Amino acid sequence: MGIRSFFGLDCEAAANACDRAAYNEAGLADKLRLRFHLFLCPPCKDYTRKSEKLSYLIKKADLKSCTDEEKAVLRQRMDEKNSESLN
Ligand SMILES: [Zn+2]
């Protein structure tokens, strides 16, 4: 077990918690563990920043009528950008 999963979150779980936090679906324990993880893991911190930016843009655009399918497309685009920056 590496230090990044010391608080019970590996990077994948952190990304999931980050996504749920962006949609206010994360519990307090999730948010705390996510914060600890981000403190220790710069790549996830970067991912969270992008995710927060995306959810801000969604709110700004007031896409309340945005379907789950459309949200999935937006998330996928974000993931593609993330993997581009990793390569
Ligand atoms: Zn991580």
UniProtKB/TrEMBL annotation:
Q: What is this protein called?
A: Zinc-finger domain-containing protein
